Design the sequence.
């Protein structure tokens, strides 16, 4: 029996080594990545009958114009995403193992799949799909711990390397590859290792490609999608419509911790009114009477139900809603990637205007592509999908960030355009000054006609007159040029 299911999403930004000073399009070109001949395989079509059915359901659920970013398909490739799955001979089952403080036995979760998506915006998403089939680790406290410690990929503060209040004693992937240990115990972290991902993540990604560098882009934690079956808890919110947000009800305490991935000894919100507002805002109650309670925060998407839940609802959560989470995380990560590039370009010297112009033009082009092909206001016509997608975008503050990013890129593009206009004006002014200098010669030549040098010097009066006119013209031209420069 499966008691709970967990998907850990690691959003990251990637860059090709040696392209830091190149245009944004060159930095994020998927074709320039060197893919290793390893146990990672690019998968562009389902391999099993169940996967084909799941894909059929997903495609019918989402609008067709969304498919280009969701699926890496041969027949409908847009070049936006490349999907890789970890495929290798496995002698035994593979487990995602967590050893946490104050618990003798480690949590052992069946690792069903490890996937990596690389996107043309310079971000990626690694996903771990784990199943909890052990009754000994199925209590509410166990589920909270699995979510909390399973998502931590680096110490949030240095003291926790010793204290282990926020991070586990170790995370490891057991049974993936013979003779290879994928394990992070966080003991090797130094004060210079900020934003360094867990070693098992880095190792897995470098086995996919050896010429990219990666860095967490959203948080020091992975995003968690989790469903949990518990009859007793489901009965509490099914029978009492306000149990999930009532601070006096013990169920609200669990729901708050489950929803906000909070495993501390006390709830991190210690104001009843604020807690009630948060729970009401982040809880989706459409199917409460059918023992289904959904919650979405900027850390998680969770689903609490009973043991009699139809299997297709769990499949929906693991496939359709999991795909929706991927899309929103990619949107969020891409916006942060663009914002980081804006900062780098802004710091370039103004003396390198042609370089800055090329960098901004490339960034602006990729950003327009992002708006047209990745960032969507709506992705499905299904009511529940519309509502959940809106909640996800709201929790991650997508609308606010897109407005800010629009302003950042727009102002940078306008600034460079003004600088380019000024350079063009300076060049035009130089040409005008040259033309002004030659104007007297042109006028004299036109007035007297083109005579040979011998004819000019034999006519003393004509030579004198032309010299005087030329001198006056040159003086007049210099006065005009001087006045122009004063006005500038």
Sequence:
């Amino acid at each position: 029996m499966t008691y709970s299911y967990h998907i850990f999403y690691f959003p990251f930004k990637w860059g090709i080594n040696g392209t830091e000073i190149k245009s944004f399009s060159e930095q994020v070109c998927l074709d320039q990545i060197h893919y290793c001949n390893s146990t990672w395989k690019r998968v562009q079509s389902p391999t099993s009958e169940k996967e084909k059915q799941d894909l059929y359901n997903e495609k019918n659920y989402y609008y067709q114009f969304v498919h280009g970013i969701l699926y890496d398909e041969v027949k409908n490739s847009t070049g936006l995403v490349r999907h890789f799955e970890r495929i290798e001979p496995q002698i035994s089952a593979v487990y995602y193992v967590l050893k946490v403080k104050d618990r003798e036995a480690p949590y052992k979760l069946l690792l069903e799949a490890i996937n990596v998506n690389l996107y043309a915006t310079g971000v990626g998403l690694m996903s771990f799909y784990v199943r909890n089939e052990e009754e000994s680790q199925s209590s509410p406290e166990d589920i909270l711990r699995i979510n909390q410690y399973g998502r931590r990929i680096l110490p949030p503060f240095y003291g926790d390397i010793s204290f282990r209040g926020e991070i586990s004693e170790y995370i490891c992937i057991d049974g993936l590859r013979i003779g290879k240990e994928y394990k992070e115990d966080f003991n090797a972290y130094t004060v210079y290792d900020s934003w360094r991902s867990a070693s098992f993540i880095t190792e897995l990604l470098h086995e996919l490609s050896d010429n990219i560098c990666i860095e967490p882009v959203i948080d020091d934690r992975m995003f968690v999608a989790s469903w949990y079956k518990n009859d007793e808890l489901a009965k509490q919110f099914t029978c009492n419509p306000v149990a999930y947000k009532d601070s006096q009800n013990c169920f609200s305490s669990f729901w708050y911790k489950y929803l906000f991935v909070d495993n501390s000894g006390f709830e991190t919100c210690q104001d009843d009114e604020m807690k009630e507002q948060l729970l009401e805002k982040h809880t989706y109650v459409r199917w409460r009477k059918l023992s289904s309670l959904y919650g979405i925060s900027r850390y998680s998407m969770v689903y609490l139900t009973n043991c009699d839940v139809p299997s297709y609802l769990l499949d929906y959560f693991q496939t359709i809603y999991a795909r929706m989470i991927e899309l929103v995380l990619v949107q969020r990560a891409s916006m942060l990637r663009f914002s980081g590039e804006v900062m780098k370009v802004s710091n370039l010297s103004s003396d390198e205007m042609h370089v800055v112009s090329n960098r901004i033009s490339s960034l602006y082009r990729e950003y327009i592509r992002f708006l047209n092909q990745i960032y969507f206001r709506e992705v499905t016509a299904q009511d529940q999908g519309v509502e959940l997608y809106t909640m996800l975008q709201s929790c991650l503050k997508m609308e606010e960030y897109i407005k800010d990013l629009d302003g950042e890129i727009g102002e940078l593009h306008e600034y460079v355009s003004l600088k380019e206009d000024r350079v063009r004006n300076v060049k035009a002014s130089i040409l005008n000054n040259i033309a002004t200098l030659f104007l007297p010669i042109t006028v004299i030549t036109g007035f007297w006609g083109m005579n040979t040098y011998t004819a000019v010097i034999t006519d003393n009066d004509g030579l004198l007159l032309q010299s005087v006119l030329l001198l006056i013209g040159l003086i007049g031209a210099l006065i005009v040029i001087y006045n122009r420069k004063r006005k500038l």
